[in-house]
């Protein structure tokens, strides 16, 4: 369903807090397939939904900006491009209403849509699924039974939420930390203990930073495991969460206090409610930095190329007086996007894909009549590059452990393009563009680990290793804990499209 149609469909709904005047649909009328898409094709995982206009700073106008005309929206926006101010997500941070009569770079629009504290997706509308008691995999017949049980628990979980506060627009998703609790966290803990003892013990404490900690389950699982298996290391362990969302930071502290181990863990935990991109504290001590399934929500820039000159153009969105979105492109790249293209080119140890294709394909395309003058957009991870800058500048002795999706099905058109979807009446609704009603759509990207490994190495000067999710778990998890009676192992067979990058 195209975003223009969705905007019309949801406009009345989104003008008011979700579901204040709507009755919840009876759970008996919902099929499980409507509540959750647990496994993507061939067990490839995606983030499934099982998931006043104020004063703005004026920027200089740019005559090189070109609006992107579509047949379903013939309005000429040339004049608006000249007069509307160019704003950033930071400029809009204190606005309570979604902006109008502004233009934004793609990465800034995505940041505002996901992280604005007043209407952003992660601030207001998203809930992480918690399955309750850990799954007893050894008692299950096979992976199919796991899918069935997971679907049942999803339905029960959301039914309980609806009893408290009905919400037909609730955004709900799962993470491997929650699905495979505590085994996934224990695998990470084994990795941390082993590498700490090999290189840092006994001269340094075990300091762990986690970004995007969700409910705080990883923190609890890691601390529980270290306490139970190596008391001496536990005494020297400090776990620090960096959390941008105030509501999630409160939830993490609540879950810590509610834990049976709260009395022991409290002295080992610090929750820092701030964005990593606002970080300004130098951390000289060696530390491990966990960034699990967070790169996919880092904002990207949209770059398209002139098929004849191969010159890049940077994309953005104009929001008009009616709140409608229009794409535009500029031949003048901002310093962040321009730097990423330079760093990627200089750092690349192997060929990387581009929308232009091979030289042979370019020549053939240019020789054919009626060809589009521009490529489809390429989405480049500029915010991720800035994250690497922060690690290098403020955490020089860090070791990164990150896991994320290397490919995603059902993405919008383009190279390295995101999946954009929302959830309505417990059904997943995909759309074909990232320029959608802010705060109600999850926008998440695949990670090209070949590219980002090279960029990370170039910026930080560190060496790395990339493994598939399955390879990492085979090394560090007790895989017999998650094996079913048939021999299937969901911890290994799920997340086939995820990879793990670690600093060595």
Automatic annotation (TrEMBL):
It comes from Byssochlamys spectabilis (strain No. 5 / NBRC 109023) (Paecilomyces variotii). Pfam families: Methyltransf_28 (PF02636). This is Protein arginine methyltransferase NDUFAF7. Keywords: Methyltransferase, Mitochondrion, Transferase. One of its GO terms (cellular component) is mitochondrion. It is found in: Mitochondrion. Arginine methyltransferase involved in the assembly or stability of mitochondrial NADH:ubiquinone oxidoreductase complex (complex I). GO terms for molecular function: protein-arginine omega-N symmetric methyltransferase activity. It is an enzyme of class 2 (transferase). The keyword Plastid does not apply. Its EC number is 2.1.1.320. It catalyses: L-arginyl-[protein] + 2 S-adenosyl-L-methionine = N(omega),N(omega)'-dimethyl-L-arginyl-[protein] + 2 S-adenosyl-L-homocysteine + 2 H(+). The lineage of its organism: Eukaryota, Fungi, Dikarya, Ascomycota, Pezizomycotina. Coiled coil: none annotated. Belongs to the NDUFAF7 family.
